[in-house]
Write a structure and sequence with these properties.
Number of helices: 5
Largest sheet: 5 strands, parallel
Strand content: 15-25%
Shape: globular
Number of strands: 5
Helix content: 25-40%
Distance between the termini: 30 Å
């Protein structure tokens, strides 16, 4: 098993046991599964990718396929205690609107972003002249979802 992502560790610390959680851009459901197992949350995910939605469903997670930029208005006001956007904000076309929707849907929003300013990324950018590819950000600059 790979080590836990640092943002997952902090989110796990912040979320109260048994809370209702919406994980926007939940990917294959790693965080959602962790929160359900460790904190007993009532969790649901929203994910745009069909393969990722299928992976969530195969894990037994409640997930709907949708776009965080366009589909958050389908969620009722105060439906959750936490709305989580984990390393997804940089992929949103309308981040201000998305953050506003998260705070409408939930009492609290938890947002994490990739550390594009990490010294290793800066050195790679300086020496190679393009955005580096890392374990966390594996796609080349021309194919990344990070806008």
């Amino acid at each position: 098993m790979s080590p836990m992502r640092e943002d997952f560790r902090e989110i796990l610390r912040l979320v109260k046991p048994g809370a209702r959680v919406l994980d926007v851009g939940c990917g294959e459901g790693e965080l959602l599964e962790l929160l359900i197992r460790e904190k007993g949350v009532d969790g649901q995910g929203l994910e745009i990718g069909q393969a990722e939605v299928s992976a969530c469903l195969s894990r037994g997670l409640a997930v709907v396929q949708g776009d965080g930029d366009r589909d958050l208005d389908h969620f009722p006001t105060r439906a959750c205690y936490y709305a989580i956007l984990s390393k997804t904000l940089q992929q949103m076309r309308e981040p201000r609107r998305v953050l506003s929707e998260l705070l409408r849907i939930a009492d609290q929003a938890i947002v994490s972003v990739p550390n594009f300013a990490h010294w290793r990324m800066r050195i790679a950018l300086m020496t190679r002249g393009r955005m580096p590819e890392t374990r966390v950000l594996p796609d080349p600059w021309w194919a990344t979802a990070n806008i």
